[in-house]
Amino acid sequence: GENVEQHPSTLSVQEGDSAVIKCTYSDSASNYFPWYKQELGKRPQLIIDIRSNVGEKKDQRIAVTLNKTAKHFSLHITETQPEDSAVYFCAASTPTKGTALIFGKGTTLSVSS
Amino acid sequence: DTGVSQDPRHKITKRGQNVTFRCDPISEHNRLYWYRQTLGQGPEFLTYFQNEAQLEKSRLLSDRFSAERPKGSFSTLEIQRTEQGDSAMYLCASSFGGQPQHFGDGTRLSIL
Predict the structure, then answer these.
(1) How open is the CA angle B47-B19-B64, to the nearest 5 degrees?
(2) Which of A60, A81, A95, B33 stands 20 to 30 A from B78 (CA)?
(3) Measured between beta carbons, which residues in chain A are less than 8 angstroms from residue B104?
(4) For residue B22, what pLDDT band results from cuts at 50, 70 and 90?
């Protein structure tokens, strides 16, 4: 089955710096890779996703890149703000087959002002 | 609010008791997922419905766990003879086809 590894487990940056979180997946059949942000005590919220037919996707300060050959994908946050502080999870799945999301263990991002 | 809703938000029970949680997905979402999340971990998949059919169950789902989605709308997750290790946040998510999954706020279960 699918296995998703996520690094680093914690990341501390200064406000305005960039943050990068990396994930690798094991199942070459996976073709959908979302990122979720979870604040303490709240639900995971989708912030960006990418499908395997695309190499990069951007949404304002957030971007995701995908390397299918290496089976890894990354989240890039630019110009970080204190409100970006949260736990970020990557995940992988094959939604056309209805498979569930397999999550990484999360990265706790702390942005200090 | 037309998001995924879960009830109750918190459940405290004694070891050995049965508990049942409810999830109401976003209207017209045909897929419904249950996940379990423990402190410091990512959500772990438990089971998945497409309409009323339960199509996949994780090995994490022991015989004490059962889930239903009788009319293809809301779903219930029941845990029988609860154990200390069942303490966790139980999250429900829904989607339409291969579209992104949207999560509810979860039910936090505490076993005394």
Answers:
(1) 50
(2) A95
(3) 43
(4) very high
Cβ distance B103 to A49 less than 8 Å, yes or no, reads no
Gap from B103 CA to chain A (nearest CA, Å): 6
Q: Is the peptide bond before B8 cis (omega within 30 degrees of 0)?
A: yes
Residues constituting chain B: 112
pLDDT digits (tens, 9 = 90+) for B23-71: 999 998 999 999 999 998 999 999 999 999 999 898 888 899 999 999 8
Cα distance from N-terminal residue to C-terminal residue, chain A:
41
pLDDT beyond 80 at A18: yes
Asked whether the beta carbons of B40 and B60 are under 8 A apart, the reply is no
- Nearest neighbour of B31 by CB, restricted to A44, A45, A98: A98
Rounded CA separation B76/B95 (Å):
17
Spatial neighbors of B49 by CB under 8 A, at least 6 apart, are: B31, B32, B33, B55, B67, B69, B72, B75
Q: Is B41 on the interface with A (CB under 8 A)?
A: yes
Name every residue whose Cβ is closer than 8 Å to that of residue B63 and which is 6 or more positions away in sequence: none
Q: Are strands A32-38 and A10-14 parallel, antiparallel or unpaired?
A: unpaired
CA distance A15 to A18: 8
Using the Cβ of B43 and the Cβ atoms of chain A, whether some distance falls under 8 Å is answered with yes
Residue A7 C-alpha from the chain's centroid: 10
